[in-house]
Amino acid sequence: MGDFLNTLRIEWLKLKYYRTFWILLAVIAVCIPAFNYVIYDITDNSFPKINGQNILGNPFSFPNVWSTVPYNAGILIFMPAILIITLFTNEYSFRTHRQNVIDGWGRWRFIQIKIIEIFLLNLFVTGIVVATCLYFGFITRTSLQPKAGWEQYRFILFFFVEMLDYSLIAVLFAMLIKRAGLAMGIFFLYLIIEQFVVSLGRNKYKVGWVDYLPEEVSDRLIPQPFARRILAPGNNALWEKHIPLYLSIAVLYIVIYILFINWRFRKSDL
Amino acid sequence: MLSILTLKNISKSYGRIKALKDVSFDVPDASVFGILGPNGSGKTTLLGIVMDVLVASGGTYEWFGNPPTEKQRREIGTLLETPNFYHYLSAQHNLEITAAIKHKPAGDIERVLKLVRLYERKDSKFQTYSLGMKQRLAIAACLLGDPSVLVLDEPTNGLDPSGIAEIRQLIIDLAAAGKTIILASHLLAEVEKVCTHVAILQQGVLIKSGDVLSALSQEEWLELGSKEMEKLKEVLVRLPGVKKIIGSGNHFQIYFNHSMPDASWMNRHCFEQGIVLNFLQVMKKSLESAFIELTNNVSN
Asked: Is A229 exposed, middle or buried (0-12, 13-18, 19+ CB in 10 A)?
């Protein structure tokens, strides 16, 4: 345990005085609520109201807010990925990944602490999402709204899984490409190409397997929350039926990424 | 004698290129062990393997008579290739990370920074350092916790002449304190001044290893001069064990088959033969010429 805490402390020493880290973290912490506020403002003011009720429903009120905010935050999920790529490629460009091993870390220890760091970063971002949910939930609170239960809270867990999936894809690219700019470029290219394949597969070739691609399957954990009953009335039950499968496959991808990252780092020249 | 590092048939391939071919040798305790070779001979690759940043294609190695572990590496001060530090951190903060990884007290940072004359700049960021300062910081990191073994790959890279002299003196002092130092360099003059043992690599092949005297025979000869060169030559050819005499202007170079006579004996002998020497010097082949001769022989 003491050894683990020492490793954690070393990782903290690397970040403590790294201004870029704190700036990017602050940007993430500001952008998630700000972006949600923009969407809230649009949904509140740009859509017609029938009998005083917005036709989109009350996406930012309890309990709907528990899926709305994670969905919106999911659009910004590339931001923590940029931070992760920066932190990881720094080690390569400074060659400190080598030096850490030379000085007495095992290769597994280096990867283990990076994965824990990503886990903690994801927890922090998820915390921001929860705080944003609470903020919008309370400012739109009415006396008639139903209470939230697991059905709603689970979206927080789904957001965490979705973000972990994206974060580990980012690590994978950072590790294989080693240079920050290029890794970010290829990461974004990958996201776009996968979306393109999914659109083509689903709409043109009518194949189902595209739903289980790494990015898509974790995106599917949090469906589009606005006016779901109007825009996609039959989809809700189908989504509910598939959710254990989506979750299992998303978690399986996480396990595969971690195993591959570990294998690659342990077996290759540093 | 206890072996600090033992290499057994270490090989490394990059595709079809063989960077190291079955390299085996022992580094004895308390030695200054020079790994010599021209650029690209495999010195850094070899050190990268024993510090676990490169994966050997074949062979094994042991530190302190045991299979390698991360705990052993904490007890070895290593400077491999380039100084690797976090650019955005100060020297102090970088060394705090090194000390924490090595499980050494952070209190030792002040000592090592003073030793390499960086204490006044301890709060400056690494990225503001000159090449020489970066190199000195890397040496400071090696010395943290006063390790018994040091692995130094081209430690004088980027240093000015006074910096080179300081590091050389530091190596001599550390060796005198009983430390084992493994020193990779292509600067033979540097190695000649400090090493007790050498391993010579060429194109990934170990040509020779052992103590400096046996690994690199550094032939000696005498150079003498007198106003009476003809008479001097007559005396010299009559000496027992003479291999060859080469005349060069006012001097003769005289080589012996086995042991060379003492210079004072030679002076006395010539004087007794009625010749007054006006020049007498013991000459020794430089490590550089011995090395070039050896590597050329292998190439041919």
From this structure: exposed
Q: Which of B161, B185, B215 is the last residue of a domain?
A: B215
Per-residue pLDDT band at B299 (split at 50, 70, 90): low
A17–B54 CB contact, under 8 Å: no
Kindly state whether A15 is in contact with chain B, defined as any CB-CB distance less than 8 angstroms: no
List, as one string, the DSSP characters of A209-241: GGGGSHHHHHHTTS---TTHHHH-TTHHHHHHH
Question: Cβ separation of B101 and A13 shorter than 8 Å?
Answer: no
Q: How far is A97 from chain B (nearest CA, A)?
A: 9
The answer to whether residue B299 sits within a structural domain is no
Mean pLDDT is lowest, of B66-80, B207-221, B270-284, for B207-221
Residues composing chain A: 270
Pair (B189, B124) in one structural domain: yes
Q: How many residues does chain B have?
A: 300
**Which residues in chain A are closer than 8 Å to B103, comparing Cβ atoms?**
6, 104
Q: Residue A267: which of B55, B73, B98 has the nearest Cβ? A: B55
Q: What pTM did the predictor assign?
A: 0.84
Residue contact A6–B100, C-beta within 8 A = yes
CA separation for the pair A2, A262 (Å, rounded): 23
The enclosing domain of B246 has a CATH number of 3.30.70.100
Q: Where is B23: in which H helix or E strand?
A: strand B17-28
In order of A114, B16, B296, the CA distances from A175 in angstroms are: 12, 25, 42
pLDDT of residue B2 exceeding 90, the answer is no
**Residues B67, B56 contacting (CB under 8 angstroms):** no
Task: Give a yes or no: residue B180 inside a domain.
Answer: yes
Instruction: Give the confidence band of A230 by pLDDT, cuts at 50, 70, 90.
Output: low
Say yes or no: B90 and B159 in one domain: yes
Structural domain range at position B94: 3-215
Question: How near does any CA of chain B get to the CA of A125, in Å?
Answer: 25
B97 touches A at CB < 8 Å:
yes
CB pairs under 8 A between A and B: 77
In-domain check, residue B300: no
Nearest-by-Cβ selection for B84 from A14, A19, A95: A95
A4 in B contact zone (CB under 8 Å): no
Residue B231 counted as domain residue: yes
State how many domains chain B has.
2
Check if the beta carbon of residue A87 is closer than 8 Å to that of residue A183: no
CB-nearest to B73 from A17, A102, A268 is: A102
Q: Do B116 and B145 lie in a common domain?
A: yes
What's the complex ipTM?
A: 0.89
